[in-house]
Structures are given as structure tokens and as C-alpha cells.
Amino acid sequence: MQAVGGWWNRQFNPEIDIIGADRAPVAQTVYFAGSVKWLSSPFDARDLADLTAGATKVPGFDHGRCGLVLVSLSGLSPQVDSTKVDVVWGPSEVLSAWRG
Fold first, then answer.
1. Against a cut of 0.85, is the pTM above it?
2. CA atoms within 13 A on the CB side of 4
3. Which of 4, 6, 55, 62 is the right S-S partner for 33, CB 3.0 to 4.6 Å?
4. Are 37 and 45 spatial neighbours (Cβ–Cβ below 8 Å)?
């Protein structure tokens, strides 16, 4: 992976917070799509459904090959099936990545 950024279409629907790809500004290969919810409420099932549906609109995203990433200040709601995502990060993981 060489590039991490966001993606949205001209209508800003969907807005995908995190895209991991082989290059920017136009990727040949997408590796993952993700959502950041930095709120006092946990990442919930609706947020996951929105990400899952929105990721399919990203050119090059393939559910069989690409991963889903969740980043949440307040963790996951009990209704979120964490087996449907590949990476879940909270504040400590974000800070660890930032510090390198």
C-alpha cells in the first residue's frame, strides 16, 4: 500500500473516510475502505451498513478482495458483527500509529 486518503462522489454520497490504495490520486488497486466515527456514541450497525453499501461505489473496491476498517472513539455497539470487518481501531491504536 502506498496511499491512504478519502473518497466521495460528486454528490458526497457516499463519503468514505479512509481508502487504502496502491497509489494516488487515481488508484489501480484498492485494498480497504473505512469509516471514522470520532463521537461519544459507539460505531453502530447502521454505520457499518452505510460503510458496507458505500464501499461498493468506490471504483476498484471488491468485497471479496478488499477489507473494511472501522475507527471509533467510543468502540463498537453490541449490535455490530465484528466478524464482518477486518480492522477495528480505537484511540490507542490511532495514537500508536501516529507516534510510529
1. yes
2. 7
3. 55
4. no
